[in-house]
Amino acid sequence: MTTLLLIILLPCLNAQKKEIAQARTFIKSGKSLDKAETMMRKLLNDSSNQSNTKIHVTLCEALRKQYEEQNEKMYLRQKVDSVAMFGILQRLFLACEALDSLEMGTLVPQSSPLTSKLKYRARHAAYLDTYRNNLRSAASFYMRQQKYREAFDFNDLYIGCMKQPLFADYHYPESPLAAYWALFAGYKLGDYDLTMKYADMALKDSTHLEYTLQYLAETYQRLDNMALYEKTLTDGFNSYGNSPYFFSKLMDFYNRRSRPDLAMQVVDRALEKNDTSQLFLFAKSTQLLNMGDYLPCIEICDTLIRRDSTMADAHYNAGVAYLNLAFETEKNTSAKPAKKRELLKHYYSSARPYMERYRELRPEEKEKWAAALYNIYLNLNMGKEFLEIDRLLRE
Fold first, then answer.
1. Which residues contact 226 (CB under 8 A, 6 or more apart)?
2. Predicted confidence band at 16 (pLDDT cuts at 50, 70, 90)?
3. Rg of the Cα trace of the chain?
4. Over 229-244, what HEC string results?
5. Cα angle vertex 385, ends 379, 386, to 5°?
């Protein structure tokens, strides 16, 4: 049985040796380097060959020579295929890391340090360290091409060197910038795992922190993780109080959950930081309108209109506030008839210029101003104007 097994194995081993020898010949001559790589990968596809160090070493050498060939072209200012060059670099890093892992797995720690028994680590690590920053260049290249999967992979490979045993002697620091771009690429891909892989590190990049928090918030919202969504929006609002994104999203979050009190706290805090912000003041007018505090709402709208008479939404809020005051007055059965008529006329007359101005500024928003003006003209006995609005509504 043993003899039969040897008879079967010997031809395979001989063929394997021939493949390795041929590949090394290609490498030595500097020709057919891609064929040398293909030959070694074909051998490694056979699980029985995956622990063969010679195959891994030959693969690394084939890739190293290919990359140097591309570098020489760049040095001579010859045309270089960037995609091909970056692909070789990526495969070279992965091949050397795989070889290092193989060596680690075949050694048993003894009294002497394990790394001293690794034949290829020091040489390969020193070589790859020279070109590690090119992984970031590749990531930037693919980011500009909007090829986010490739961009993530190169940033991932760059950051991963920190924990790779192959580079244990280099003590690479964290790279929050690369982590940010990895997070961004994952976000653009809509991939939660990729987005979150380096999120903690990306949060240390102060330059892009505002955007990092935005992408994380969007990711949590997609996942319907409202607890983390709220927390991230809050963190963003606390750090970037003037950001329309965090302010608007947080306001919307609380209003959708019927927490106007919390929404009002947000807008008041925002105004503490910037009491002249048009966005914050308008948001407060809307919040007051929704909470039924009509007179304070109108006061803020008037302030906004004095600053910018073309601010259509401020006119609309003020007009709606006066109309709501009129509707509340109509429902008040305890009011004296004469006083009630006086108040109704006042409120409808007050609402009229705001709504008419809103119509001028936003004629396309007919569904918002037409019904309002219908009620105003009807209650003010403005026959001509009422008939025009009635015709528009019928149309």
1. 220, 253
2. confident
3. 35
4. HHHHHHHHHHHCCCCH
5. 50
